[in-house]
Structure formats: structure tokens, C-alpha cells
Amino acid sequence: MFNLTALPPLSLYIHVPWCVKKCPYCDFNSHKSPEVLPENDYIDALIRDLEQEVPYVWGRTIKTIFIGGGTPSLFSAKAYDRLFSSLRALLPISHNAEITLEANPGTFEQQRFADYLSLGINRLSIGIQSFNNDSLQALGRIHDSQQAIRAVETAHKVGFENFNLDLMFGLPHQTEKTAREDIETAIALEPTHLSYYQLTIEPNTLFHQQPPKLPDDDPVFDWQIDSQHRLSKAGYKQYEVSAYAKNKRQCQHNVNYWQFGDYIGIGAGAHEKISDAAKQSITRRSKQKQPQAYIDSAGTEKSILTNEIITTKDIGFEFMLNALRLTDGFPTPLFYQHVGLPISHIDKALKKAEQQGLVIWDIHRICPTGKGQRFLNSLIELFLPDS
Questions:
Q1: Antiparallel, parallel or unpaired: β 271-276 and 243-245
Q2: Whether the predicted pLDDT of 10 surpasses 90
Q3: Beta strands in the chain, from DSSP E residues, in sequence order
Q4: What CATH number belongs to 314-387?
Q5: According to the model, what pLDDT value does residue 24 have?
Q6: Would you give the distance in Å from CA 163 to the centre of its chain?
Q7: Mean pLDDT across the stretch 227-244?
Q8: Separation CA 383–CA 368 (nearest Å)
Q9: What homologous superfamily is domain 10-255 in, according to CATH?
Q10: Phi/psi at 165 (nearest 5 deg)?
């Protein structure tokens, strides 16, 4: 039985499911956009969806907002203005809330992004992936290297002081030289945050059906280590498996995920996790994935695709699956604060992880070791029920 005496911070995730083109490596809920986007119908659906969520989080303040996709920058500032007006009427938003919008270089328009900023969107996450044209073509991206650079320059020009660049390595056609060039170009553009991760072939993607030739794992690992050293030298501290940030520029929305905070999810295929102190329960839900099915059902029970109450048996794994991604770990008391159970609930797994040299822990902090970070999947598996 949980003993939730307080509730964790609350975030809001908004999903926009359309892209100009579906990338062959992408396993997110994204769909090729129709000739005319149903922008107004989708905003109406998001508002109905949000209205349905309000009773579950009544009185709680939104700390961060993340608009992901898909390609949210396909939508106009006017559409987001209408959405935000309803959001502010329905739920309190922290005065210093981090509000992020994902954008792709192929959709950058200076006036549109200036308008986003004026609405209160104060952080961008720009999907660069690479600055090498051969790699971009192999990844099926709709932009080229010059468009990627111009997009970042535009973000600076219109006044965004906080933005992330998504960058991948281990790509088709990539060499040690081009991998280093990607990192150097990214650093020169002065983002406040970098998401830097290896391309993986996921099920239900075109790359899974038609695998491209990728560089061997051993040299790719060496590139990663070299790039991590270069980012550190440039002032980017690694704080999560694939996240690097300048001082005080960590993505607060993602940190809330990794620290097992709560989040509302609205939009096609959106997921959410909500704690309820009155019912002493923690629930995960997801919404209809297909855009039209979501639009038709939003605001009704038919919009709920999955609804699962997390059990005390599974809670240790659920928490550690997220928290152990953080390179500095987490304060030990956070487990009780966000789960409502004492740390002794996972004592057996913690001791086993410590014996294997995968974590260090005491009454103050639990932290993965360097070995634990490298073999993260093996570390997390120790917290599976009945392991």
C-alpha cells in the first residue's frame, strides 16, 4: 500500500502527430501530414482532452510544458495562442514555467518563431540529427546542412536564449571525421543543451524492415567517448544518458520524467502518469494513436487507449527505470516522496547492484557508477519484480 503524503511536481505534455515526412528510423507516433492540416479541429480536440484531465489534477500547478511530435512547428502561432488561452483558464501555470516546442529545420520561419516566443514558448528543441548532407539524406530528413545552421541562427536572432539541438551518431555513411565535425559545428552554434544519442534500429520502422549499413559498434563507442570529452571541455555537463547542458540549462521537463514526477498527456498517442493522494494510487494512461480517431473521441472515455494502475510490486522498477538515467543519481528521500514507500522496499536490489559495482548509495543519495552507466540495462533489470 502506498503512503503518498505529498504529490510530485506536475508537467504537461502536448503531442502533435504530423510530420512533412515520416523518417525511416522514427518509432514515435508520427504520421505524414495531409495537404491541409486539420489545425482547428486538432486544437479543439486538445482542449476537450485537457478539460477531461482537469479533475484528476485539480488545484495543482503546471511546472513545465513540452510540445512534442511529430513536428509541432507545423502549427501556427495562432493555433497555440488559442490552446494556451484555454490552458491558462483551466489550470494554474508556474510563472517561470519552462515551455518547450520541438521544431525541425525544414519548417523554420523567422516570423512564426518570433510569434512563438511572444506567446511564452521560451525553449526550442531543434531536430538537427546531423550537419552532414550524406547522413541527413540517409536518415530521410527534409533539410540539409545549411538549413540546419540557418535554423539555429534564426533561433538566436528571434531571441530564444534557451534551446536544445538533437544530434545523433553511429549513422549511415558516418566516419570518425564527420562525427567530430558534427560535434564541432554544434558547439560553434552555442546551444544551451544537446541531446546526443546513438542511432538505434527500432521495431515498426522502415529501417527495421530495410536495415542500413551502420558503422561497427567499437569505433562508434570510441567516437562517443571522444565527443563526451569535447562537450565537457566546451562547458556541457552530461546529466543524463544522452543529455548535456550548460550551467542551469538542464531540461526541467525531462528531469521531472526521470525523477518520477507526474505529467498530463494530451494529444494523439500521448502518455501520462498521475498520482492521487486521496485514492493512494499512481495511474498511467495513454490516448488514441490515430489522429482522426483521437480528434473524434477526445474528451470522452473512448479517447483512453490504455489505463493501468501501478502496483507496489512494480513501483521499484518503474521508479528506477527513470531515475537511474541521471548521471548524478537522485536524493535517497526522493523515492519516498514520489512513491510513498520507504527505500527499504528496494533494499534487496540496491544491495545486489552495489555488490556488482553498478551503484553507490547511502541515506543521502543513490547514484549509478561509471560501470552502472555503461551497463544501464543490466542495472535496471535488477529492479524487475522477482529478480
A1: unpaired
A2: yes
A3: 10-16, 18-19, 31-32, 62-69, 93-103, 123-129, 163-169, 193-198, 237-240, 243-245, 262-267, 271-276, 281-287, 304-309, 330-331, 359-361, 365-368
A4: 1.10.10.10
A5: 87
A6: 14
A7: 97
A8: 13
A9: tm_1862 like domain (3.80.30.20)
A10: -115, 130
